[in-house]
Amino acid sequence: MAELPAKVTIMKGATPDLSAATYQIHDETHTIGNALRWMLMKNPKVEFCGYSAPHPSENVINVRIQMYDNLSSLSALITALSDLDDLAVTIEEEYVASLKSGDYERWDERS
C-alpha cells in the first residue's frame, strides 16, 4: 500500500528558525485557505500571510507566513488552526440552539 503524504509539509526556503515559511496543506482548498489566512492575520505578531492554490487539479494549498521578531510561523499556524476549530464549534452550537428554539423566519413555498 502506498504511503499517504503528511497533511502539512514545510516547503523549501523556510528560514532555520521558521520565522518565515511556506506550508503546503494537502487535501484542502480555498475554503480553508481563506479562513486560515484571515485567522492568521488577526494575530498581530504575523507580518505577512497569503495562500495560493497552485493548480485546480492539485488538491493542495500553499500558505506563506512571515512573523515579526523571529517568532515561529509554525506556532502561529497551529494556534490559528486551533482558533478556527474553536470558531467552527461556536458557530455550530449557536446554529443548533437557534434551530431548537424555533425562533427563525420560515420560508413558505406557497407564498
Molecular structure report:
One of its GO terms (molecular function) is DNA-directed RNA polymerase activity. Belongs to the archaeal Rpo11/eukaryotic RPB11/RPC19 RNA polymerase subunit family. Its main location: nucleus. InterPro entries: RBP11-like, RBP11-like_dimer, RNA_pol_Rpb11_13-16kDa_CS, RNAP_AC19, Rpo11-like. One of its GO terms (biological process) is transcription elongation by RNA polymerase I. The protein is built from 2 helices and 4 strands; from the N terminus they run ββαββα. The chain has about 110 residues and is of the alpha+beta class. The chain starts with 7 loop residues before the first strand and ends in a 10-residue tail after the last helix. Helix content is about 35%, strand content about 25%. The longest helix is centred in the C-terminal third of the chain and has 29 residues, at about 75-100. It has helices at about 30-40, 75-100, and strands at about 10, 20-25, 45-50, 60-65.
Please outline what is shown here.
The protein has helices at residues 30-41, 73-101; strands spanning 8-10, 20-26, 46-52, 60-67. The protein is α+β, with helices and mostly antiparallel strands and 111 residues long. Helix 1 (30-41) packs across helix 2.
Uncertain segments of ≥5 residues (pLDDT<50)? none
**What integer is the average pLDDT?**
92
Main beta sheet: 4 strands, antiparallel
Class of secondary structure makeup = alpha+beta
The radius of gyration is 18 Å
Shape label: elongated
Domain DNA-directed RNA polymerase RBP11-like dimerisation: 20-93
Subcellular location: Nucleus
GO molecular function, one term: protein dimerization activity
GO cellular component, one term: RNA polymerase I complex
